[in-house]
């Protein structure tokens, strides 16, 4: 019989690889009896959704993140230096 | 002379700088690393701009380069941490399992019901706490977890890039998930759900 610890491992690994027949069956039996592990499973699905949302949001520009002007200037300088070098090489 | 649709590097910085910085900051959770990643990205873009034909938008193209740069940083950091303290991580992780499970392998406490997932995701507060909890993970776990879940890199690539076995990866992802769940539950979700029911 699977313990909750075993079951939680399988629930996590199910997001990474297809479970074998015995694993799936064992997990199913455990989940049938265990409300905590059913909740764990739902929470893991939610976690994955939330993290993907975080990734998508990262690609949208809004006012929530300040691009520090000093950082911008440092990068501008670095770009200008590199640009000059390339210009020199082409001559 | 540059007649490329991309425009000048200065123009990239003005148009896409903030977006790239935000993306880098979300993934690295570190202002210095974010700045470094943006700079590396624009320098790489400068060198590679002849290979950009305008098929994708400039923003998409730059984000693509940025992803690689962040991956490089993670890989570099992962090696360093491994060299520094091979045992420290094991200890935190063992204590994590002990906190969650009794010796019998059962949960120490019955897990709380987080309620309706859609509602939870719509609340901005949930995302804020999620980020804080990501910050609280051991750095190596956090990076690995970001690669897998936020950048949606596939397991095979991660194993190859970081030179770890799939079993290793699964174990570390499990520990990250267990830690995050616990942090979310303690810091907000569990309490908020309980409060809402009172």
Radius of gyration of chain B: 20 Å
Oligomer: heterodimer
- Helix/strand-derived category of chain B reads mainly alpha
How does the overall form of chain A come out from the CA principal axes? Answer: elongated
The CA-CA distance between the termini of chain B, in Å, is 68 Å
Extract low-pLDDT stretches of chain A.
none
The main β sheet of chain A shows up as: none
How many distinct helices of chain A?
4
Helix content of chain A: over 70%
Instruction: Give the integer mean of the pLDDT values of chain B.
Output: 80
Largest sheet of chain B, in brief, is:
none
Structural class of chain A: mainly alpha
The total beta strand count of chain A reads: 0
H-E string of chain B:
HHHHHHHHH
- Shape verdict of chain B: elongated
Helical amount among residues of chain B, as a percent range? over 70%
Largest protein interface? A-B, 50 and 55 residues
Average pLDDT confidence of chain A is 87
Tally of DSSP β-strands of chain B:
0
Order of helices and strands of chain A: HHHH
Structure description:
The complex is a heterodimer of chains A (91) and B (198). The relative contact order of chain A is 0.09. Chain A contains 4 helices and no strands. Chain A is mainly α and 91 residues long. Chain A has helices at 4-13, 21-33, 35-58, 69-89. Chain B is mainly alpha-helical. Chain B has 9 helices and no strands. Classes of the chains: A mainly alpha (91), B mainly alpha (198). Chains A and B meet through helix 1, helix 3 and helix 4 of A and helix 1, helix 2, helix 5, helix 6 and helix 9 of B.
């Amino acid at each position: 019989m699977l313990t909750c610890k075993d079951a939680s491992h399988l629930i996590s690994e199910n997001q990474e690889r297809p479970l074998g027949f015995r694993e799936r069956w064992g997990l199913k039996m455990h989940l049938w009896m265990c409300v905590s592990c059913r909740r764990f499973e739902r929470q893991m699905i939610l976690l994955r959704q939330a993290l993907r949302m975080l990734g998508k949001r990262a690609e949208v520009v809004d006012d929530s993140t300040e691009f520090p002007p000093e950082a911008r200037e440092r990068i501008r300088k670095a770009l200008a230096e590199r640009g000059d070098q390339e210009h020199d090489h082409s001559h | 002379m540059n007649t490329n649709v991309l425009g000048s590097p200065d123009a990239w910085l003005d148009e896409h700088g903030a977006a790239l910085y935000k993306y880098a900051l979300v993934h690295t959770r570190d202002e210095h690393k974010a700045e470094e990643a943006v700079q590396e990205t624009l320098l790489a873009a400068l060198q590679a701009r002849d290979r950009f034909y305008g098929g994708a938008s400039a923003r998409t193209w730059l984000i693509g380069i940025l992803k690689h740069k962040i991956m490089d940083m993670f890989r570099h950091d992962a090696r360093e941490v491994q060299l520094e303290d091979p045992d420290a991580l094991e200890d935190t992780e063992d204590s994590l399992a002990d906190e969650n499970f009794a010796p019998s392998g059962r949960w120490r406490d019955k897990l709380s019901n987080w309620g309706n997932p859609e509602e939870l995701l719509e609340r901005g507060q949930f995302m804020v706490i999620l980020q804080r909890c990501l910050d609280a993970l051991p750095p190596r776990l956090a990076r690995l977890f970001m690669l897998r879940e936020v950048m949606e890199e596939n397991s095979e690539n991660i194993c190859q890039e970081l030179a770890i076995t799939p079993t290793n990866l699964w174990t570390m992802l499990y520990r990250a998930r267990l830690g995050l769940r616990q942090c979310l539950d303690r810091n907000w979700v569990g309490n908020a759900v309980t409060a809402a029911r009172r």
